[in-house]
Amino acid sequence: MYCKFTPKALFILLSPMFIFGCSQAGNSVDKETTHEVEVNKTIWPKLEVEVKQDAAIESKIVEILSTMTLAQKVAQMIQPEIRDITPEDMRKYGFGSYLNGGGAFPDNNKHATPQDWINLAEQMYQASIDDSLDGSTIPTMWGTDAVHGHNNVIGATLFPHNIGLGAANNPELLEKIAQVTATEVMVTGIDWVFAPTVATVRDDRRGRAYEGYSEDPDIVKNYASAIVHGLQGTVGKDFLGNDRVISTVKHFIGDGGTEGGVDQGNNIANEQTLFDIHAQGYLGGLTAGAQSVMASFNSWQGEKIHGNHYLLTTVLKEKMGFDGFVVGDWNGHGQVKGCSNESCPQSVNAGLDIFMVPTDAWKPLYENTIAQVNRGEISQARIDDAVSRILRVKLRAGLFEKPSPA
């Protein structure tokens, strides 16, 4: 590759966007991708992950699952947003998790103090383990986008955004940054971070290009491993200890390679290219032990990932051996053909384990999912698998034993 610059373009050298190198994106999509319907399971390796299954944890999953009602199980799969629920809702339904999206703060106050965040976390935690209404004592999890530090909380340490950190090409530095972020997230009562973003961005026109670390899949792979270790710790040393959080590699898969860089668009790469370019961050992050994967808004060869059984189940869970859970993105299930924000058995059947469902759509989604299991549209076995994965991560993270947020 070589680069040619006009005088007007020299300013690009001073721009963070230049970390993607002399962009080949305008040509790379055309040269590297073809529309291919056939799939090839031999492309995807069985990963030698650092986190092994523990017989005691697996036994505990079976024990807990045997005591749960269908309503309690589906509630574990529903993730509402803090603007849309109260601690009383948590007490009544026992959601498995909840989140704060961008622009969401305790009491809708963007100047909320760290203590305000702790107070809300404590209220939600205590409501989740209160069995007076829902009969469940399973602790909930709070997930947040701490993408360059705990950036929603005033006073937290902020780091350059991912596109800037990619320029350093320094995995050891990224692990330290992730560890600092984990500590600052943990002390505000939050258990789970929606990071790292491992998109291999191939077109600089993509509006979310700054969330990617590099167009080089090797850099993305190495960063993913380092960041997961920084957030979660290392097995045999400090894995998911008191100053660590659950990590999420996202967005599975191909969001950095959509046609024309269109956000939530269509990636038409053939399967080998999908693996070689867009899967390398998952090889790094999942091998390092990432416990959650977030499904992507984009499509692959015309099919929305949130409804793609081949990618979410056959590839990710069966071929690659991922035993954590798959969480959706912001009402991403509603984009699947035949679905809405309030109803999507297709996503569950495809392998989605947790619906990220902000707005008041969470209640009809919860009710519809229960009804769909009762009608046989979703199998009880698929529900049990999803909840087992959620419980596995909660048990590995020690959420049943850790002290409350306050």
Describe this structure in a few short sentences.
The protein is mainly alpha-helical and about 400 residues long. The protein is built from 15 helices and eleven strands. The protein has a three-stranded parallel sheet, covered by helices on one side.
Account of the protein in words:
The chain is mainly alpha-helical and 406 residues long. It has a single domain (38-396), classed as TIM Barrel, CATH 3.20.20. Helices cover 38% and strands 8% of the residues. The chain is built from 15 helices and eleven strands. The strands form four sheets. It has a three-stranded parallel sheet, covered by helices on one side. Strands 5-7-10 form a three-stranded parallel sheet. β8 and β9 (303-304) form a beta hairpin. α4 packs parallel to α5 (114-128) and α9 (217-232) runs parallel beside α11. The chain is globular and about 50 Å long. It starts with 24 loop residues before the first helix and ends in a 10-residue tail after the last helix.
H/E order of the elements? HHHEHEHHEHHEHEEHHEEEHEHEHH
**Overall mean pLDDT:** 91
Q: Classify the fold: give the CATH topology.
A: TIM Barrel
User: What is the approximate shape?
Assistant: globular
Total number of helical segments? 15
CATH architecture classification name: Alpha-Beta Barrel
CATH homologous superfamily caption: Glycoside hydrolase, family 3, N-terminal domain
